[in-house]
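Figure-free illustration: sequence to structure, shown twice.
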Amino acid sequence: VEVDRRTLLRGALAAAGTAVFAGAAWNAALAAEPARPGVGPYGPLRPPDRNGVALPEGFTSRVVARSRNLVTGTDYQWHDAPDGGACFPTDDGGWIYVSNSEVLFRGGVSALRFRPDGSIASAGRILEGTTANCAGGATPWGTWLSCEEFAWGRVYETYPDGSREAVARPAMGRFTHEAAACDPDRKVIYLTEDRRDGCFYRFRPDRWGDLSSGRLEVLVAPPDLTSGAVRWEPVPDPDGFPRATRRQVEGARRFNGGEGCYYANGVCYFTAKGENRVWAYDAVRETLSIRYDAELAGGEDAAPLVGTDNITGSVAGDLFVAEDRPQPALCVITPDGVVARFLHLPDHDRSEITGPAFSPDGTRLYFSSHRGVRGGDRGGMTFEVTGPFRR
C-alpha cells in the first residue's frame, strides 16, 4: 500500500482536529450516569441483508475482504482471524483501513487502501512474523500500534502506507497486550491487558512521537473502587520477566479481561469483558467511573450489551462497543446514556465482532467478524457499513 507518508501525517492530524468539535458531546457522555437500555438513535434493526448483517433503516453493508480469499481487484490474500483495526486518511481523499491478524506465529497486520469513491485501490502486508496480534490503536502522527496478546507480547509500531518497516516498541512493556489509545493532551498512551487479573497502563514517551523510550506506569486504586480518584505508579521492569508487569506494583487495580481502549476529549474509555463493563478514566481529574455495566442494565440475560470488547467512537460523541456473546453485535452508547444495538450478525454465533473504525469523514464504519459463519480462523470476514451516521 503506497501512500506519501507526509501527506498521511497531515491527514491524520486534520482528522484528529475534527474530533475536537465533538467536545461538548463527549463531555456530556462523561457526566452521565452509567448507560441504560433504551431506544437507540438509529431505530430498530431490520432483518439481515444479503451479507447476513442486521442493520437499521437507511444503512447498507458490503463485504470488503474474506480470509484466505484475494481482495477484490488485487492479488493480495486477506489474513486469517481479522481483529483490531483503524482508518487513516490519504492525500487523494481516500483512506486506509488496517487490520490485525490474531493467529499464532503468523499474525501481523494487513492494510486496505480505498479510493475517494470507496472502491478498493490496493491491499498488502505492513507487519508479519509476529503472533496473536489482537487490538491496538492509531497514533496522532499516523502510525498503527499493533499489540500482541500473549504473556510477553510486544507493541509494534506499523506504517499504514507501507513506507517503512514496522518497529517493535519494548519500552511500552511486555505483557498480554490488547489495545492502545493515544492521549495527545498529556502525551501518554493508555494500554489494556487481557488477563483475568489484568491491569490498566499508560506509557509516557521521553519525546512525544518517538516510542523508542519512556516510562511505563500502572493505575493504582482500591480493588473495589468503581468511582473516585486513582493514581499512577511506575512499573520497575517493563520487560516483565521473570516477574510479570501486573505483579510488580502493590495496589495495582485489576480489571477482568481488559479489551478495547478509546480516547476522546480528556477521557479514556476502556472495556473489561469479564466484568461486562465500559470504564471511563477522566485524565483531567484523574478519576475512574463506570460508563456501562451489564448488571445495572438488567443482568447478563437481559442487558443489550455483554462481553464488552473492541470500542471506538464517532464525532457525534457516540461510543460503538463490540459484543462477542451470545451473538456478535455492535452496540451504541449515546452521550445521554442510552445503550442499544446498532448491528447484529445472527449467523455468526461462533465468532465475535472486531476492529470497528470509522472512515475519516465518518460516513463509513468498518469491522470484522473474527471467525465468520464457519467459526474458524480461516472464516474471517471484513465489512463496511454506510449510512446516515450522526455527525
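We now fold a second protein in the same way, so the two outputs can be compared directly.
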Amino acid sequence: NKVTLASSMTVDTLTVDGTVGQADTLNLGSSGYTLKLANAGATGTVLTVSGALTMGTSTVDFAATNSSGAVTIPALTYSSLVLSGNETYSAAGSFTVNGNLTISGGTFSAPSGTLTLGGGFDNDGVFSHNAGTVVFSASSGTQHIDAVGTGSEAFNSITFSGNATWNMDSDLTVNGTFTQSAGTIYAPQTTLAVAGNFVRNGGTFVGNGGMVLLNGSDQTINGTTTFANLTKTVTAPRTLTFPAGETQTVTGTMTLRGADGAVLSLRSSTSGTQWKIDPQGTRSVQYLDVKDSNNVNATKIITAGSHVTNSGNNTGWAFPPNAP
C-alpha cells in the first residue's frame, strides 16, 4: 500500500507496516501538513514504523493527554516535531529533527545519545536532558533557542556545528561542555551558564550584553572569544585554564573571584606560554593565583588588597611590592 497525505490528519495511533508482501509506504506530503497522534489514554508506542515513512515537510505532533502515562518517541528523522500533550515522552534512541522541535506540553526525556536539530528549539514544557548531547546543525537561516519551560531546564552538552545564526532567546544552562565550531551565536541578554568546558573552534560568538557564567569546578576555555561579561566565582579551590597564546576579550565586567581558603588559580594550557586577556571594563578580582598571564589592555589589573598571588610570568598585572 502506498499512501500520500493530502491534508492534515489526526489519529489515535499509526502503524506503517513493513511485512513482506504487504509493505506500506506512507508519504506525509510536501505541503506542510500535520500528522497528529492524539490517543488520549496512550502509553508506550503510538507510532510504529517498519515500512517506509517519508516525512516531506510535514509536522508530526504527539498530542497524547494521559498525564500518568508515558509515550515513546521513535528514533526516526523528522521534518518538524511537536510534543503538545500533557504526557511524559521518552526517546527510543538518538534521533534527528530537520526543522524545529517544539515542546508545548508535558515532559520530554531526551535521548541519552544525540539529539540533532536542524532548526530551533522551543520549550514550554519540561525538558530532561538525560545526559545526552544536543547538536544544532542548521546550515543556514536564523534559528531560535528558547529553553525556559515550566521546570528547571538545562542541557547536558550542546554543540553548534552548522553555519546558521542562533539567537538564544532566554537564559541557557549547560551542565556539560559548550562547543561551537561554526555559525554565529547571539548569547542570551541575561545569562549563559556553563558548568563544563567552554570550547570554541570556529564561528562567531556575540556576547549580546549578557553574562557567561562559568559555574563548574575546574574548567577550560578554548579558542578566542569576545565576552560581554565573564564571571567565575568559587567557594572551593579551583583552576580556570586559558588557551596559550589566545586572547579573551571582556567588553563589560570581568569577575574572577575565589575566597579565603578557596583560591581560584588562573593557568595557561601550556605552562610557560602566556595566555592573553583584554578586560576593557570593570575588573573584580580576589583570592587568585595567577601564572603565565598577559593583560594586553593598556590599563593594568590592580591587585592591591585583593589577595592575588603572582606565580610568575605575568604581564600587565599590578602586584604590590614584596607580595607573595
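Summary for the second example: The longest strand covers residues 142-146.
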